[in-house]
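User: Show me an example of a complex going from sequences to structure tokens.

Assistant: Sure. Here are the input components:
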Amino acid sequence: MHGDHRPRRCSIPVTVTLKLFASLASYLPPGARQHAAVVEVPEGTTVAALLDRFGVPPEQRHLVLRDGVFVTPAARNAPLREGETIAVWPPVAGG
Amino acid sequence: MGWQRKILRVNLTEGTCTPEPLNMDWAMQYLGQRGLATKYLTEEVDPRVDPLSPDNKLIFATGPLTGTAASTGGRYSVITKGALTGAIACSNSGGYFGAELKNAGWDMVIVEGQAREPVYLLVEDDEARLLHAGELWGQSVWETHQRIHDIHQDPLLKIAAIGQAGENGVLFACIVNDLHRAAGRSGVGAVMGAKRLKAVAVRGTRGVRVDDPQRFLQVTTEKKRILAENAVTGQGLPTYGTQVLMNVVNEIGALPTRNARDVQFEGAAHISGEAMREPRPTDGRPNLVTNQACFGCTIACGRVSRIDKTHYVVRNKPEYWKASGGLEYENAWAMGADTGIDDLEAMTYANFVCNEQGMDPISFGATLAAAMELYETGAITQEDTGGIELRFGNTDALVTLVEQTARGEGFGRELGLGSKRLCEKYGRPELSMTVKGQEFPAYDPRGIQGMGLTYATSNRGACHLRSYTVASEVLGIPEKTDPLVPDGKPALVKAFQDATAVVDSSGLCLFTTFAWTLDDIQPQIDAACEGDWSLERLLEMGERIWNLERQFNLAAGFTGADDRLPERLVKEPARQGPAKGLTNQLGKMLPEYYALRGWNEQGEPTPETLQRLGL
């Protein structure tokens, strides 16, 4: 016999848009436009892991939005979904 | 102390300037600035007066911390019956004028009557004189500033003035001090223009004394450290200014776009705080030159910008090539997203003109947006606009009409009425995005529910600065709440309203509250002022001020029925973003808010509430 030939579930990459604003813009990959980059990550990658990958300092992840909706620090361990947008700001305010 | 215990009463009809003692009983109840001047106005002015009549009064008021060493202690407010709204107006400004007035020995200036000929008021410490302003009338704020300095050969005079807009009766004219800081909203500049008072010029050298200097120095130093070490007030605001919000509010789907038909703007990134810092392809320089601080401020959020001199709008206007007051978030929203325009340089030009001629950019931009929708729906045509194709996104229309509005020319004369009167005139009142006659600012209440209640109940008409629940609902300050639900918002709004009334009565800037709470402000007031200024006393005072303003409005003819939002916000669901499908739930929030306030179902304070607050 030549090993296990049962079909395996392949890991399908997930494509998301990462937006980093204000002083976080410098963490975007080259080629990013208007503070946004389309990135591909392995299935199961969490919001926090995505930000780790691009070196966004944890203490600077103040306002994290998932398709415009605030993600609490606890919920940042949820896996990314295909096609969604993650937008992040350091502490900012105005008015 | 903290107070100078002296006010200047200027009767323009009689041509007199008379000092009188500050009513210290009232100061103990209302502290200063917004609260104390509101007390004076409600005691002295019939709420039913025509705002533009000689019977209205115009009060320039400082707070006990104005002119002191407290960080941001340079604020003053203008209190009057608003020309735009007919409601109580209280417009707050920074710069250096307020601190100078206080240093000249005055807590406030009460201007009454109406001059026969244009005049300006010159205050040099104890000396106050009314002088002929014939040659200044018709001049811009900037020309007036220069001319008064030349006349008196004193470059240290601090000046608050109206431009052509105030003279021409633009109902959202403002008062501009130090060239580009403004008491901006509700048409306080139109009241000043109706009184034929062109400017107030002040030089003050007397200093400001505080009750316990040693404790004051210690506590203000300690509180400055908090501002410096806080990420928002220490880094975010000085670097990006208020304009950092453009992308935030767009992403959360609460950026009113094209007269609030949409809640996200595809051009937001082009007009954002980040965009202001990016080098331009034309000259390699960014729009933003530097940040700038007002008197005593250790935050320094102000923007100083320079327009690209190759841009077609200013190519032949070298007078606009120099650095001047740049776009703040509200201005950039009003003249950008709300009009569908994404030309940062042209918007900066329009902002310069608003400063130069004394117009509120929020009301101007929002009125232009309403006019654009009137045009696109066929309610007005090029016949009405003088040939201007008034479509959303038309930069030329913005540039032409900002000039025309200030000068009272062409279709600009119509825009100068504000959007409520404009839309009523053309039979489409529902297209006016106003509350109590004042245009709402840069947060769509379908995506930030608390701001709907904020706008509806604001005593000066729609405004974000009466209860900035955006801090909590969007930015997580002091703690995050969900912007999409109305639950808990009545209590949040009331808490913000009362606390804001305290800050606005102190002489400090509201922006300190991104880092400070009232627990940080209270010891500064307590060290500066005689008496025991506890947190409880201050909070009760904030509530007292709110109710006093409400009483003025009720006596002026407003009722609970005026605590409402434009139909669009409560009937047309948001079309994009997280709030897609949602309207504002004002109907759910308002009764709970009235109950929390101790008001009856008609929105009137009950006798018990008035008694509890000493009203």
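The lines above are the inputs; the final block is the predicted structure for all two components together. Helices of chain A lie at 47-53.
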